[in-house]
Amino acid sequence: MVAKSASIKAIEITRAVFESIHGNIGLLKFNIEELIPTNGSNGQESKKWDVVCSFYETLGSTSPSRYKVSVNLNDGTVTLKKIGTPSSEAPEQRFTFTPEPV
Q1: pTM for the complete prediction?
Q2: How many Å apart are CA 24 and CA 92, to the nearest integer?
C-alpha cells in the first residue's frame, strides 16, 4: 500500500472538517484554490499546510464561500477562517483531529 502524501492528507482533513460542519450536501463544488506548504525543507515534505478552498454551503447559495484553512499534521489542529467577510462577522475556528502515527 502506498502512503498518501502530506498534501493529500491536508486536503482530505480540510474537506472532512467542512463535512462535519455542513454535511456533504453543503460542500457542493468543493474546490482547492491554493495549497501552500508552511514548513519542511531539504527534501522533507511539509507537515503544515495552508489550504484556500471554496464551496457552496447550501443548495440555495448564489456564490461560493471561501476559506483559508491551516492544517498541522504534527499536532492535529485545523484552524479555519472565512475569507471575504468582515473580521467581526467571521471569527477564526479551531478543530482537532487525531494525527496518524509516523
Answers
A1: 0.84
A2: 22
